[in-house]
Write a structure and sequence with these properties.
Order of helices and strands: HHEEEHEEHEEEEEEEEEEEEHHEEHE
Number of strands: 20
Shape: extended
Largest sheet: 6 strands, antiparallel
Radius of gyration: 29 Å
Number of helices: 7
Strand content: 25-35%
Helix content: 25-40%
Length: about 400
């Protein structure tokens, strides 16, 4: 813009007639001034639009999940880590398998029993086994939910379709000794046997760190408490505090640090959960399937909707909410049908969440979706993730889904 202004000045200086020169100056200054104002206003509106779409309060708290062979873990990864799980299993536990097939087929497996040959260090045993959702992995998600609640961070549930294909194997007859070391479990799943994958591990972009905070004592009324100051080393990551032995604590987040206030004791070492930014190009985890995430695009319409007193459950509004999530790219919204139940019972994606409602019977709304890829074995779990997001928006309705 400046070089054009200088060019106009040089052209005006070449005019000798003072009257023509004055008129030309007035015209060019007015035109140039309007053009400059218009340009500045356009750039300002563009900046506001970009800032509005990028400013997401939860942008550092999105969870990426994947599944890989245990020997395919990248121990040097800065983004993906194996999901921890408790080793205290229920009686009769023989192991965990990954069943890479559709949700309806898995539902049928959960309701039946199968013959199995169990190889142990004490010998080989034949018994009857049953399959169930992995209790250890379910409890890990429950634990993460509690950390979000304790830190007063909004819980947007998790898009982890792999979680509902990790199945625990349980000895129904109690034939295998409890102290035996399991070497191999061969299960006859009939036509589904080819979909069994062993030695699988779930991964996510969440890591644990032990920090040494600076501790100060503060007083509020008649109560004294300890303030732990922990600097934020990565401004692209999300942080959650998990102090050991503290049931009641408060956390204050800022751009430079995290303040953790406890009443019970001062912690010379404090555990922090870090939700790592995802650098896929630098990660060498041998994933069996593409990563899944609950990430969304926080658009201007979504920001406006946060200020609305309530949701208007129209097809357009539901599509706006669902389309903000990346996973919705795999679907098309066909229709909404109030008072209609789905063909299948939904997965209880958040069985640990307890919602208090005065309504004895909730009205059901069915979301009818079309999966763009009918061969995607995760399409049902992805749909239930989207339904869970809708369920978190309201208490008066019960959401269900149908795939067409």
């Amino acid at each position: 813009m400046e070089h054009r202004k200088e060019l106009l000045k040089s052209r005006i200086s070449q005019i000798q007639d003072p009257i023509q020169k004055r008129l030309l100056q007035d015209v060019l200054v007015d035109v140039f001034g309007e053009l400059l104002d218009y340009s500045e206003e356009s750039f300002f509106n563009l900046e506001q639009k970009i800032d509005g779409e990028r400013c997401d309060p939860d942008s550092h708290y999105y969870i990426y999940t994947g599944v890989c062979k245990k020997d395919g873990l990248d121990r040097a990864s800065r983004s993906l880590f194996e999901v921890p799980r408790e080793e205290n299993h229920a009686s009769g536990y023989l192991g965990t398998l990954f069943l890479a097939c559709d949700y309806p087929q898995i539902r049928r497996c959960l309701s039946g029993t199968f013959e199995a040959e169990v190889e142990t260090d004490l010998g080989t045993y034949h018994t009857t086994v049953a399959l169930s959702y992995s209790r250890a992995y379910q409890e890990t998600v429950h634990w993460l939910y509690r950390q979000f609640m304790a830190n007063r961070r909004p819980w947007n549930t998790m898009n982890c379709p792999f979680l509902y294909k990790m199945l625990d194997i349980t000895d129904r007859e109690g034939v295998v000794p409890k102290d035996a070391v399991i070497i191999k479990v061969a299960i006859d799943l009939f036509e589904l046997s080819e979909f069994v994958m062993d030695d699988m591990a779930l991964v996510w972009n969440l890591s644990e760190h032990i920090c040494k905070p600076r501790v100060d004592v503060s007083v509020a009324g008649n109560v004294s408490y300890y303030v732990h100051q922990i600097p934020r080393e990565d401004d692209q990551a999300g942080y959650l505090a998990a102090p050991e032995g503290e049931e009641l604590f408060s956390v204050i987040f800022s751009d430079q640090q995290v303040l953790v206030r406890t009443e019970k004791e001062a912690h010379p070492q404090l555990k922090m959960l870090k939700i790592e930014p995802m650098y896929e190009e630098k990660d060498h985890t041998a994933l069996e399937f593409p990563l899944q995430t609950n990430q969304r695009t926080f658009r201007h319409a979504d920001r406006q909707a946060l200020g609305q007193p309530r949701y208007l459950w129209t097809k357009g509004e539901v599509e706006r909410i669902l389309s903000s999530y990346e996973v919705f790219d795999d679907f098309e919204l066909v229709d909404l049908c109030p008072d209609m139940s789905g063909d299948l019972e939904p997965i209880l994606m958040n069985t640990f969440i307890r919602v208090q409602s005065f309504l004895k019977k909730k009205r059901k709304i069915a979301v009818i979706l079309h999966a763009k890829d009918s061969t995607d074995i995760f399409r049902y779990e992805k749909m239930y993730f989207l339904l869970a997001q809708l369920q978190l928006c309201t208490e008066e309705y019960e959401w269900t889904g149908v795939l067409r």
